[in-house]
Input
Amino acid sequence: MGACVAIDSLKAAELEKEKLLAQLTKERARFANILEQLPSGVVLAEAPSGKLTYQNHAAAILLGRSVDDVGSYRDYDHYNFIDAHGERIAPENLPLARTLLNHEATSTEELLYERGDGTRLHFAVTTASITDSDGVARIAVAVIHDVSNLKLAELSAASEKERALVTLAAITDGVITTNRSGHITSVNPAAARMTGVADDEARASTFCQVLQFEEAGGADLIVEALKRCLGERYVIAGLPHLTMVSREGQRYSVESAVAPVTLSDGTLLGAVFIFHDVTESKRLMRRLGFEASHDALTGLVNRREFETRLARSLERARHPGGGNAALLYKDLDQFKIVNDTCGHLAGDELFKQLAGMYCEHVRERDTLARIGGDEFALIVEHCDIDEALRVAHKILEVTRNFRYVCRGQLFQLGVSIGLTPIDSGTACVEDALRRADHACYSAKERGRNRVYTHYHGDLDFAQRRSDMHWVTRLTHAFQNEQLQLYHQPIMALDDDGKGMKHYEILLRLRNGRAGPVGPGSFLPAAERYDVILKIDRWVLERTLQWLAARPEHTDQLDMCSINLSRRSLGHPSFHKFAADLIDASPVPADKLCFEITENGAIANMQKTIAFIEALSARGCRFSLDDFGTGMTSFSYLKQLPVEFIKIDRSFIQSMASSKVDFEMVRFTNDISHMMGRKTIAEYVSNPAILVSLRTIGVDFAQGYCIGKPRPLAM
Output
């Protein structure tokens, strides 16, 4: 009986034990399942051996190997745990080992872990010892968290902060940041330099203590802008230019703005006050503004600024009580001698000295300008013409008394001054300058070193404006092929024109209102403004081209007369041009006859004779035009080696009705024949004149009675 009870008790105990083991297994499985689902790695080790008894799935992934590959914590040496200094950690110094060996309490530290594939991860490792009911620690646990992303974010944030600090330190703009209350939180080096207040001191100060401005209320203006920026959360730019004064007294012209600083979700952190040093740029702008309106050499007002001020004077003159003014246009005489003798640097120094002397005699309200190479201009404000004349004569006197010494040589200059009033009758700036320039030109024509005053209605000015018109027309004509060659026959009176062709080349300007414009309208202006030399070159070149293109016509040509101006006769460059052109042309030189005027020939007799002899040696012939108009015609006739004499029209036109003119023509014809020259009568307009010419024995006749000018057939 007792044995049966004992057996039953043992069976019950076994059943209880099995039940407990099943329950324990179930709890272990549930615990293991929990550990396996944790995102953090969990590692268990026995004490004191260090044998690893468990590693969850997350730990296997983080460490890169299963628990079966690692017998003890000592094997982690192969996994390269690295401390904060970049040194590898010995196995006995691992957190888990310290917990096992030293029974340390719970601890957490960050480690860098390098897996076998080279991947580096940042771990936060928490270790703790687990004690049994008897108080003995037999197991240690390590929980591993992957904090790589967090670490990278921290590093990135630190890098961004460092970059921001470096940027703030590097930029030249002053930057002061505040918190939401408007208290200063930082001052970058540029702001510290311009205010004279260091960062530490600034953070304990108010804006009004840090910012000092030359303008009254400048700091208050910035504080008010800061309050509005923080209150309304918008950028306030375009604040007034202010002059900041540092504690050392240094002044800076600044442009400034205030902007709110917010997070992406709109949370306000504070504000930033930025100020840009524009001291140098403003100085440069002032300099550029001065250079844009002043002459770089003399420091006087330049032409553009002068015209602006002249426009203001004209505007004042148009209003009642505005006051009249006067414009002086000055052109230095004999200045080129200084440049040619001593060079341009000496000429520049002369300008500086002379400009300085002029400034001493000009009122502050007047405007003196250098408007060209050696040209100056002056606006004399609020004065009548007599007062302006006194100023002009004073400048004339100053220039006459001026002496310039260079390289041991003494130079004395003169000045031609043109003066014109500026009043309600002055049309515009261009009109005033034209009148003053004309007056200056007239002063030069009258002998230089004097003052000439232009008044409204000046006939010389009207003539000069007409000249300018024709010069402009001629320039346009050259550009647009509007010059045209004509020819007018010259008939031999002894054979009724049945011999070879003989004609004079004439010039016309196309596109006149009533047809082609004759040379009498534009050649005087061309003479006065040195366009005539270009015209003579064009006529000679085109005539030779026309003849060369028509050899049959040229074979039947006895002579083609071409007019030359006084300027061409006295210009060596034209002499060479004509000689080279004739030498290169297939047209025989003896087909050409050059007509020169009496006045043009005697203007420079030696050069004229040299030119005639050079071309005569090539076969060219010469004719003296307008003969008889000068008082010394016959005396010069002996010196000029010409073959033809053209009797002036003033005698020809009236010879049929005037005995005196008839005798003058007869006398001229006889003397010319006596000297071996043939005669040509120009402007033969009717048969009666032609009869008289034949009676006298004149050799050739030209005029409407013989044939009108006609265009050369192109």
The first strand starts at residue 41 and ends at 46. The chain has a mean pLDDT of 81.
